[in-house]
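User: Some background: our group keeps a shared notebook of sequences we're curious about, and every so often someone picks one and asks for a predicted structure to add to the entry. Today it's my turn. The entry only has the sequence so far, pasted here. Could you supply the structure so I can complete it?
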Amino acid sequence: MQQTGRMMGIAGMCVLLLALAGCSRAQSDAPSAQGKLEDAIKARTDVTVLRDELAASALREITREGALSKAVQARRKIVARGESKQEEGNILLTKDRYIDSAEAYKQAAKFYRQALDWDKVEKKLSKAEQAVVTARMLADAAAKSDGSRMTETTNAAQMAAGQRLQINAEGYLEAGDVDQAIAEFEKARQAFEELLPSQGMATLEQAVAARTAMLAAREQIKDLLKFLSKGDAGLRELRRELGSRETETTSTAKKPKTGSMADLLSRAQKSESAAVDAFEERQYSPARALFAATEKLYREAAVLQDQREQVQASRKSVVDSLTLVDKAFKSEARPASFERGKQALADADKALADDDFDNAKKSITQSVEQFATARAEADKMNAMADAQHTWSAALATTDKELLNKHASNQFHAAQTKATDAQTKSSAGQTDAATAQFKQATADLEVAVASAKTKENTAKASPVIARIETAIAGKDKFQAEDILAELENLIPSDARMAALRDRVAAMPGPRKQLVFDLGGGVKMEFVLIRPGTFAMGLDQGDADEKPVHNVKITKPFYLGKYEVSQEQWQSVMGRNPSSFKEPKNPVESISWNDCQTFVRKLGEKMPRQTFRLPTEAEWEYACRAGTVTKFSWGDNEDGLTEYGWCQSNSGSTTHPVGEKKPNAWGLYDMHGNVWEWCRDWYGTYASGNVTDPRGPTKGSGRVIRGGGWNYVAEYCRSSGRNGIYPAYADDDVGFRLVLPAGQ
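Assistant: Of course. Here's the predicted structure to add to the notebook entry:
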């Protein structure tokens, strides 16, 4: 027991001693731990101050086309690494790892100081980068010249080595290791410079001569900025000055195709910029080499420019062809050849955009061929469309009940042919469909004539008696009117052929006259028969009222067309028109000029008495039996089919006879040019009048019909104006009258 107690006492003593020893060590280590904590806190304070200073400095970050340069990105990564180390230090500090925390703070401070000194770092980096870019440009130019001192294989290997070093430098820069990036750029510069030929030092005069040659080559590039705008982002500087100092190595913009106009000019701009820098630094040898390389690039671009202009000229003719072919179709349907032509034109545009001129030419040729085929097919499709329209119009106006009563078999046979024609049309058998529609229409006309004749035979006797009386009285106009009545009554009657021959053989004026002015130029006239019409318009202007009945007692011939420039030239020996085109109406001629023309035309044809129409004759002929605003009705939109006015003329006159004629076969009575009349301008008299000649005097002569530069409303049948006889302008012309029965 005693021994056991003794042992326990010894053990207890040992524990006590150990505890006391521990306390002693803790007391002796306390100042050391406190010092490490203070170091960490001090380091944290230093790095926080640096971070605040960095935030306050707000260093300018340059953006190029919306993308940060690699240098700026590297700075940001350095700041980010500093922030990461600062956060690491904060975490270690909370875990009482003072030494590690202080070390992390010191590393963060290093990164922050580097970022704060970034202006100097970036300048050093930019200089290293620019040196590589210049050396590479010089090496590339030297590798393509006969002065290179290395073999082609060695050149390629050395160039590849320099490119790898340049890529390595950019990788280091991207990772934020600026020092290593600068070192790699320096190695890349040395690698490229080893490719340079050993030549003597260039003089100032030689560098200036090279720059002059380069500027001369640059002058050959038309619309330079337009091409440069298609290049990479740095080229925008050229909108202010071609010799931009900015070096673009990191743009994220889409690079132009190698060898294209944009590529050549992009490279030329960079090469020229480097040459200017070298020249200003009095480094005449590299300046001369770079100016020479730039000159070569501009000359290559000039060759592409010429090729582009040739292709663009061809393309314009194809676009014009497309427009003409498209207008040639009378319906919305287009053949496959037309669509293939459009596709080929689109392919040409794409190739042209890529400066692929060979393929652009091929596509343009294909487009021309396809549009030529489409134009030929348009004629066929239009013929079919016309035949189909004629059938539909004839069918719509037929008395189907009458046909089923008297000519049902013929009627049904015509309908069957039309159905078959539609089937052939859908199958693309254009020619067969056209023929079938025409035959169906002809069969329908025969059926209608047969049905009318059977229905009206009993009514024909008194009408035939009237025509016999007119023939006996030698009244050809009355005989023609009664014959037209009979044609509608009994068209297929056996007696009609003889009656037609007898009326045609009656003496009287011909329906049309044609005069030869010489040199292949002719002047055509249409017979206008006597009649009565309501002149003026209640809904018109004040000078178109009152509406009054006018009787025209004598037939006359009126020009089928407005007098053309070639007709005027044939008679007068000159052409005063503003819109010179032989088939266009003559204009810029006064009323007095018209009298001179009439006199000289009479000298060429002394048996004829030409003159201007009276105002009443003009409106009577224009209306052609109608009482509406226009010779086709009251709808102004119809003018697009019958005449040229402000909405469709394109601010010019047009060849006579291109639009539809009125019911009496007269063209351009509405629009194109105003037409001089014989009368003085004045107010209308009320009541019925016969063969009016207008006032006996006045300040102006009447013009009628409206012109190319007037809205449709002014081109109505009753529209009138008065201007002094010496007036001449590009919207006034005329047509002539020739009395019938001369």
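Suggested note for the entry: Residues 1-30, 59-68, 231-253 have pLDDT under 50 and may be disordered. DSSP finds 22 helices and 13 strands in the chain.
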